[in-house]
Amino acid sequence: MRTRLSICRRKVNYPTEPEALAVALRANISLRPYRCDRCRQFHLTSRTKGKRVPAALRQ
């Protein structure tokens, strides 16, 4: 599923996955980074259904 352009514009952009992952690990909720198909940078999402969860985020 493609990221809608309006969603991409509202989210924070992270140039690398490690940067996004660092922010996700500091959050109070479960977040995971993903590469946006619109801007080719990384965003964070709380959705995990059917998605790969990085080992660093697994508890």
Describe the 3D structure.
The protein is an alpha+beta fold. It is 27% helix and 14% strand. The chain has a two-stranded antiparallel ribbon. The mean pLDDT is 87.
Topology as a string of helices (H) and strands (E): HHEE
How much is the average pLDDT? 87
For the secondary structure, the number of strands is 2
Residue share in helices? 25-40%
- Strand order in the largest sheet: 1-2
What can be said about the biggest beta sheet? 2 strands, antiparallel
Alpha carbon gyration radius: 11 Å
User: What's the helix count?
Assistant: 2
Instruction: Determine the structural class based on helices, strands and strand pairing.
Output: alpha+beta
Strand content: 5-15%
Can you give keywords for this protein?
single chain, 59 residues, alpha+beta, two-stranded antiparallel sheet, 2 helices
Structure in a nutshell:
The chain is an alpha+beta fold and 59 residues long. It is built from 2 helices and 2 strands; from the N terminus they run ααββ. A hairpin with a 6-residue loop joins strand 1 and strand 2 (42-45).
What is this structure's SSE topology?
Elements: H1 5-10, H2 17-26, E1 32-35, E2 42-45
Antiparallel strand pairs: 1-2
